[in-house]
Amino acid sequence: MNLAALQEQLGRVREELNAGEQPTRISVRELLRWGGAERRGSNVAYAIRQTLRNAGVDTDPNFNHASLDTELAFRLDLPVPPDNVVPADAEPAPIVGAGDAVQARPVAAAEGVAEQPPYLGGAPLEPAFRISRLDAANKQPLSVRPDCSLAEAVTTMLLRDFSQLPVMTNERDLKGVVSWESIARHLQFDAERPTTVRQCMDQGVEVKESDSLFDVIRLIAAESYVLVRAADNRIKGIVTSTDLNLQFQQLSEPFLLLGEIENFVRSLIDGKFTGEQLLEVRDGADEGRPVDSVADLTLGEIIRLMENPERWQRIGLQIDRVIFKKELDRVRLIRNDVMHFDPDPISAEDHQSLRAFVQFLHQIQRLN
């Protein structure tokens, strides 16, 4: 991360807040870019959180609870300091990540009291995957009023390809939900043909924005949607089964693509090297790990195997070794990012790189 750039941007934000001005709202995605990041991994979120704290600034909503495209407002975050805290104009403490010691501000030890040791930090402040992380949970849903004509509601649903519409009088007052199912039921069984939304609506299904996504999944599966209510009581979004499918595709497809790439690359070297030759490329920091087959090699070790021109010839691919190795190394870097299990999807560029490399491998398979 580029912490210096992030500190500079937040310093400007702090100056505007001190002057009584409201800084321009930015998206979570833009805040990450300020620090040279794209996703909210544990180390990234921790570093941003510490940098915000050092700058005396906070975001509303919390940058780690919202979707990437949610706009953030800035506000002062000035807790009352104890008497022995370093002055505000002193150099900020270094930012540390998971596995590093938290840099506590120096405090004089009382007589006869041992100094506190530096404890380790870096765990996520919010480990749960909240439904507020989904884009759909942060997009104001289109709604209709109770006295809206049924024809108007049906036309809107057809035009937008919606399965349901919230019935509301304002952004906080939810009266119900009208859906194809509720319309069909009332048309079939009501003695008098309904003409307004009020006559066809069902009770709305709500969840709080702070609810865990995994607690809500069953509800979405049963009802096909949930309405998301914010802490300020607004209905701030609607999450449907389609949104869930898209989210899990974005998160799961990279794992499947990487698995296919690794299986294919291992098949290229299968049966072409001795056990001794495979041991030669094993990571020097992992000498105790057995390497009994090509399945025991990491992607980095396979790349090391391919660096040698003589070994490359044994693989028998009629393609450029340097280009292949370069692209495979990029896959390795993406793999390391994916395996951090961050809730944010990898970038569209990285996702497309994985798809393109899989297609490339399929072409090689057909030609060899």
TrEMBL record:
Coiled coil, from the record: none
This protein's UniProt keywords: CBS domain, Repeat
Presence of the UniProt keyword Hydrolase in the record: no
PROSITE patterns: CBS
Boundaries of every CBS domain copy: 137-195
Leader sequence segment: none
Protein name (database record): CBS domain-containing protein
